[in-house]
Give the backbone structure.
Amino acid sequence: MKKLRKAPITKDALQFMEKYLNSYSATSHEVQGQKVWLEYLKPYIDEYHVDNYGTVYGVINPGTDYKVVLEAHADEISWFVNHITDDGFIHVIRNGGSDAVVAPSKRINIHTRDGKIVRGVFGWPAIHLRKSDNPLPKVSNVFIDIGCSSKKEVEALGVHTGCVACYDDPFEILNGNRFVGRAIDNRMGGFMIAQTARLLKENKIKLPYTLYVVNSVMEEVGLRGAQMIADTIKPHVALVTDVGHDTSTPMIEEKEMGDFTIGKGPQLTYAPAVHNKFLDMIVETAEKYKIPFQREANSRSTGTDTDAFAFSNGGVVSALISLPLRYMHTTVEMVHQDDVENIIRLMYYTLQKIEYKHDFRYFK
């Protein structure tokens, strides 16, 4: 097995990370982000495909009859325009798991059908005007102001029911090693699988199977892209990466949610969808290469694309490597650079341990 000769995150990779995280990739409207991702990936794959709903996958060593998937999801939470009042205010519904508490005072970009962006803000009554019994922000009372005085004026800008609205919060680095931004869930996953493909290419790794590097759509509304692409590819093995919760920040009960901290390594998940022998392989790989990791248990589902792959096609050997994340589904999601690099390393080495027609059966 070849060890890494280059760092998991190079200067060029960091530039790609910033461009990709700053792109827009709302659930069911992932095109912009997918184009950025694919353009970066192309030098490191043999071919690529795009399905009907926008899931993109690159193929390495095509043509074998044993298929392994390395997967992340591309979509970010956002809002749908749902109602425009006569005096020009815009009410919304969720597109994915958007948190209304986060919305007030945030800047927002509304994407029109003709590709234009209409700027707006989520308004909220001033503290001076609120009473003690005023409700907290919720989907039914948050609203967008785009500076219009009537519904007709709003519609003249191209805004109508069904337009998607995305937050406008750029990527940045805090204290040299904390990556912060919106949609790190889970475009950082797309970044990590792209870097894994890069390292396989640059280190001249010849895999004995066909590897599909998959960036799926519509995870935030029920794992839909993964369900579709699992049926298309029909893989034998799926290694999925997504984000998990950092539970070390205030107001989180570790006894209930688990004990996880950014900077302490990837989270390796025990769950019904996770194949135990595949997980053992990942744990052994982490231990061999001295990659720190944290253990997580999920009682029913992982809530990630792992479930979609595992329970497809009569059962696909699947496992999940999660990136510890603070402030999920906010515009200031935060991860640690060490964890990002360690997940890339762990995926790089794990993929080399999988053999052609690897037998993961518990017993024969």
About this structure: The chain has nine helices and 17 strands. The longest strand covers residues 237-245. The chain has two domains: 11-76+182-353, 78-167.
